[in-house]
Amino acid sequence: MNESQTHVENVRQSAEKIVAASAGLKPKIAIILGSGLGGLAKQVEDAVTIPYAELPGFPVLTVSGHAGNLILGKLGGVPVVVLNGRKHFYETHDAYPLKTMIRALKSAGVETLFLSNAAGSLRANIVVSGLMLITDHINFLGLNPLVGPNDESFGPRFVPVTDAWDRDGSEKIREAAKQENISLHSGVYVAFRGPSFETPAEIRMVQGWGGDAVGMSSVPECLIARHCGMKVVGVSCITNMGAGLSDEKLSHAHTLENASKGAADFERLVIAAVKLL
Ligand code: HPA
């Protein structure tokens, strides 16, 4: 089998395992947890956990704060799949593990992908431990996960992304924030490749471009999901101000520590939102 045939087979086998383990649950929403936001996984009721290692073609994880488990169960009574951990493009050039994960979810019946991430703020009014609804993105990764031969059975060669981040779904997340009395900003997420954080000059550049937050994930996930016809919504948990915008020292430990500060609001928001989505 060549690479793309292996991929198709991995998607099929992983989707089959997910459906078999879900015992008729039929989740329509999958939530990918970002760095430091893994706490939500513990809130899943009647949880059935499948380690990524048991799902053919799923990512093999290396970064701390990313566990590598798929969890089936309910949040606030709503059937969900929670994905604790994903591969970043700073770890690999290989988009197949991420594609396998998202396409297997789609094959298993998931219609909406809820993305989350830790991000740096580009705006003085979006402060640390605040939450930002992602309304659009700028792909500054220098790559697109859909580059390479296109398999029409997953989606079209050219994908319109005018509506990459679902408007109706985003409205429901805003509604959930109101219900829960959580302050929720909205804005444009700029994806850098990493693994270095940005320079102050890069931060000024993307401020000028209309960015509101920066991070190293979620854009590939969004593009793969839109390609195969899933709806996408997303929330950034602000863990720091962008480089040069404050005196804080940026590090992965700092990201994880501050993500845990915003995590309680994030968890409440997701649980309220899945009931409306
Ligand atoms: N830049 C890029 N990625 C990030 C940041 C940041 O400032 N904070 C958390 N993830």
What does this structure look like?
- The structure is a single chain.
- This protein has 277 residues and is an alpha/beta fold.
- The protein has a single domain (3-276), classed as Nucleoside phosphorylase domain (Rossmann fold, 3-Layer(aba) Sandwich).
- The chain has six helices and nine strands.
- It has helices at residues 3-21, 96-107, 167-179, 200-208, 219-227, 252-276; strands spanning 29-33, 45-51, 69-75, 78-84, 112-121, 131-140, 184-192, 213-215, 231-241.
- Strand 6 (131-140), helix 3 (167-179) and strand 7 (184-192) form a beta-alpha-beta unit.
- Helix 1 crosses helix 2, helix 2 (96-107) packs across helix 5 and helix 3 (167-179) crosses helix 6 (252-276).
- The radius of gyration is 17 Å and the shape is globular.
- The N and C termini lie far apart (39 Å).
- The relative contact order is 0.20.
- Residues 118-120, 192, 197-198, 214-216, 239-240, 242, 250, 255 line the site of hypoxanthine.
